[in-house]
Amino acid sequence: MEGALNFAQILISVVLIVVVLLQVRDGGGGIFGSGQATYRTRRGVEKTLFQATIVMGVVFIMVSILSAQLL
Fold first, then answer.
1. pLDDT confidence of residue 26
2. Residue 23 to residues 9, 19, 57: CA-CA distances in angstroms?
3. What is the C-alpha separation between 54 and 13, in angstroms, rounded?
4. What count of other Cβ atoms lies within 10 Å of the Cβ of residue 19?
5. Mean pLDDT lowest for which of 1-10, 39-48, 52-61?
6. What percent of the chain has a predicted confidence (pLDDT) above 70?
7. In the chain, where are the structural domains located?
8. CB 64 within 8 A of CB 9
9. Which residues contact 9 (CB under 8 A, 6 or more apart)?
10. pLDDT digits (tens, 9 = 90+) for 21-47
11. Which of 32, 34, 56, 66 shows the greatest Cβ crowding within 10 Å of its Cβ?
12. What is the rounded CA–CA span in Å between residue 23 and residue 46?
């Protein structure tokens, strides 16, 4: 059972990293970009990736807690 949870945790973490890296922001934002803060509604693929990031994060935390409980 521990081996399966460890494999699931590794797989979920890789998918979570990929989903986060796929989220593309418009150029200029962030730490080194312009100081303008523009807010807009997420639509289409961007909304799906955002929701997938939240779901994968929650699943990762749940698997981590379950894995820690079995130790």
1. 56
2. 21, 7, 15
3. 13
4. 19
5. 39-48
6. 79
7. 1-23+45-71
8. yes
9. 60, 63, 64, 67
10. 988 765 555 555 555 556 677 788 889
11. 56
12. 7
